[in-house]
Write a structure and sequence with these properties.
- The chain is built from 4 helices and 46 strands.
- The chain is mostly beta strands and about 700 residues long.
- The chain folds into 6 domains: about 90 residues; about 110 residues, Immunoglobulin-like, CATH 2.60.40; about 110 residues, Immunoglobulin-like, CATH 2.60.40; about 120 residues, Sandwich (Immunoglobulin-like); about 120 residues, Immunoglobulins (Immunoglobulin-like, Sandwich), CATH 2.60.40; about 100 residues, Immunoglobulins (Immunoglobulin-like, Sandwich).
- The strands form 11 sheets. The protein has a 5-stranded mixed sheet, with no helix packed on it. It has a 5-stranded mixed sheet with strand order 19-26-25-21-23, with no helix packed on it.
- The longest helix is centred in the C-terminal third of the chain and has 40 residues.
- The chain is elongated and about 175 Å long.
Length: about 700
């Protein structure tokens, strides 16, 4: 019996061990499935920094997951085109970040290139581990918004000195001064040089033509000096020398400015020659055709030195009506200071002259001993009479277009328009008759599919029109229907109206009038269809790409693509430039919503047509932006496993209760039947012998 009892107890213990062992393994599995860490950048991803100086900014490294993150390390992915460098003190070791916890990390931003006033993306790479020593990686993008472009560097030139303070032809002098930085920013890579120099005026006598300074701090100064020499034959006077300053600001932007400094050459001002025409004697009375007349005057030098290389030219303003009868050019090698010389010129009227007063121009050129030429002009007048020419020029009737109107005002290429004209006879006493009018346009158009021809073509009529007569001060109206060829370029065309007519005596006349017709071409921008998600999580980039084509017949100017709305975009405005007819472009960008809720976003393509009118193609969208959501794995796991855990506990308790009950019954039975122990033992032995025999037979 003891053996069988032992077998039963052993079997019961094994069953309990198996059940309890399965329960403990399930608990361990449940513990390992609680969640994973997830590292992100918390807070605002847009960081403002002052360009040109070192900045320190703090960001939150946040664990958005449901498990701790250990050995968190952050590094900065740097672009070679970035004009700045971002570093992390301590090498980027963040340490551990608990579930839903965060650590502050400091970023140091320094600059090493030319910075623009915009926002630059910076990518942060993260590596970290969980409690099971599994490795995770992630990347986040932040944006650096550049500030500090308000104040421009400035300077002034001070203590400008010319030693000696005046130069004479052929002499040298030293020009010195000081550059003072009176702005709010340092001047970098400063170069100062002299411009507007010439070997026949003022030039450098030696040394370098520019000076370089590595930097001039705020409130600092730098001295400079240049050696100058005046040309030996230059005239006295004040001559400008341009002082040019080139430098860079702290953003690396190159700036160039110039100022003029005047150098006195010739000693005291006014010591030069000065010629004047005095005692001009103009011909009196009236002179007929081919009748000579003389103009004379005194040339006086009122200057302090001699005038040299003097040239006096006499020229009638109307060379066809008045011609010279003597030499029209006279030269004088030198005229001393205070000296006078008398000059005279003879002229006569021609058959082409009318009965009127004609002007004669006298031009005087001279030098003060150098190469600089001084020039001045003076005029005289003479009365000429020519009755025969006056008769030829008697009043004649004239036809003009006194008023015209286009309907529409701006004509579209490929369409018809009305041209209404008022034709007026301007003469008060003479009428005109037998009037012929026709239109011409000098400019023509051509294309591969069409022969050359006029821009404007009459509709249902010829190009020639006839009127019987128009009386003195009379007026007639003409209405034309014209067609504009489709290939006409957008601009204002000049339409010529030609008249051929006669007066009452049968004398023929011609006249032309010019009309301006404004032609405009149809402009059209074809934008491909595209779409963006209706719902997006805040902070998630939205990509946009599409093609667009100029399907019109003219070039589109200043094409620009813009992203409008409360979103963050690296380039909200992209300048494309000009697009020829038939040209196509492709645009792609991405933007990130800044706020939750309904966010309107517009993609706008703007351009100017040939007339300068601004036009737009818009695509408007409304984004449904949601708040960033927490991971659902951890909550779902807890909700699903809670009932399972209670069930396992109840099973374990039931098994233990059954085991205890069986053990209790067994002990009680042993105490109640001690007298049967021997008999049962014997029976048990017999049973065991029978069992053994059965086993052996088997």
């Amino acid at each position: 019996m003891s053996k069988r009892l032992f077998q039963r107890v052993f079997a019961l213990i094994m069953m309990c061990s198996i059940v309890l062992g399965q329960t403990s393994v399930i608990f361990a599995d449940d513990f390992s499935e609680n969640g994973s860490p997830k590292i992100i950048v918390g807070g605002d991803a847009l960081i403002e920094v002052v360009a040109g100086q070192e900045n320190r900014a703090t960001i939150q490294v946040k664990n958005k997951g449901g498990a701790p993150a250990d050995n968190v390390y952050v590094s900065v992915k740097r672009s070679p085109t970035d004009p700045f460098r971002v570093t992390i003190p301590g090498g980027g070791d963040v340490g551990s970040v608990g579930a839903n916890g965060y650590q502050n990390v400091t970023l140091v931003v320094t600059f090493n290139g030319e910075v623009k006033e915009s926002s630059y993306p910076v990518t942060l790479d993260f590596t970290y581990r969980n409690a099971n020593d599994s490795t995770f990686t992630s990347s986040e993008t932040i944006y650096l918004k550049m500030k500090g472009f308000d104040n421009e560097p400035s300077f002034k030139l001070d203590a400008m000195t010319l030693s000696p303070d005046s130069m004479s032809p052929g002499s040298s002098a030293n020009l010195s001064g000081k550059i003072i930085n009176n702005g709010e920013k340092d001047l970098q890579d400063v170069d100062i040089s002299l411009e507007n120099l010439s070997t026949d005026k003022i030039s450098l006598s030696g040394g370098f033509s520019s000076k370089h300074f590595a930097s001039i701090p705020i409130g600092g100064s730098a001295n400079f000096a240049f050696s100058l020499v005046a040309s030996a034959d230059m005239a006295a006077g004040n001559y400008p020398v341009s002082i040019k300053l080139k430098y860079k600001d702290k953003f690396g932007k190159a700036v160039e400015k110039a100022q003029d400094y005047y150098v006195n050459v010739g000693g005291v001002a006014g010591q030069k020659s000065q010629l004047e025409i005095r005692n001009m004697k103009e011909p009196g009375g009236v002179y007929g055709v081919n009748q000579n007349f003389t103009v004379s005057f005194d040339l006086y030098n009122s200057g302090k030195i001699s005038a040299k290389n003097i040239v006096v030219k006499a020229e009638p303003v109307d060379a066809s009506a008045v011609v010279p009868k003597s030499a029209s050019v006279k030269t004088i090698s030198e005229l001393k200071a205070g000296a006078t010389t008398t000059l005279s010129f003879t002229f006569a009227g021609t058959a082409a002259a009318k009965s009127q007063n004609y002007a004669i121009q006298f031009t005087t050129d001279y030098t003060s001993g150098g190469t600089a030429v001084t020039s001045f002009k003076q005029f005289a007048g003479v009365n000429v009479s020519n009755p025969s020419k006056d008769e030829e020029n008697a009043s004649k009737p004239k036809l003009i277009v006194s008023n015209y109107e286009c309907n529409p005002l701006i004509v579209m290429a490929g369409q018809e328009f009305d041209l209404n004209m008022d034709i007026l006879n301007t003469h008060a006493t003479k009428g005109v008759k037998n009037i012929k009018m026709f239109l011409t346009l000098a400019e023509e158009t051509s294309s591969d599919s069409q022969k050359s021809g006029n821009i404007f073509t009459p509709v249902n009529s010829s190009n020639t029109f006839y009127f019987d007569a128009i009386g003195p001060k009379g007026k007639t109206q003409k209405k034309l229907r014209l067609y504009v060829v489709p290939e006409a370029q957008p601009k204002t065309y000049t339409l010529t109206v030609n008249f051929e007519y006669e007066d009452a005596a049968g004398k023929e006349f011609t006249a032309t009038e010019l009309l301006g017709i404004n032609v405009k071409q149809v402009t059209e921008m074809q934008v491909d269809d595209f779409a963006i998600p209706e719902t997006v999580e805040m902070g998630t980039p939205v990509a946009v790409s599409f093609g667009y084509n100029n399907t019109g017949k003219v070039t589109l100017n200043n094409v620009m693509v813009k992203v409008e709305g409360d979103v963050e975009c690296q380039n909200k405005s992209t300048y494309i430039g000009n697009m020829d007819s038939g040209a196509g472009e492709y645009f792609e960008t991405s933007f990130t919503p800044n706020t939750s809720g309904e966010v309107p976003v517009s993609i706008v393509i703007s351009y100017e047509d040939a007339t300068g009118e601004l036009k737009e193609e818009r695509r408007d969208f409304v984004l449904n932006v949601t708040e960033p959501m927490m991971p659902e794995d951890a909550d779902n796991t807890n909700n699903e496993t809670a009932p399972l855990d209670m069930k396992k506990v109840m099973i374990s308790i039931s098994i233990l209760a059954l085991f205890a009950m069986g053990l209790f019954i067994f002990i009680r039975r042993q105490k109640q039947e001690p007298q049967n122990t021997f008999a049962e033992s014997k029976n048990d032995l017999d049973d065991e012998d029978e069992d053994d025999r059965e086993d052996m037979s088997l």
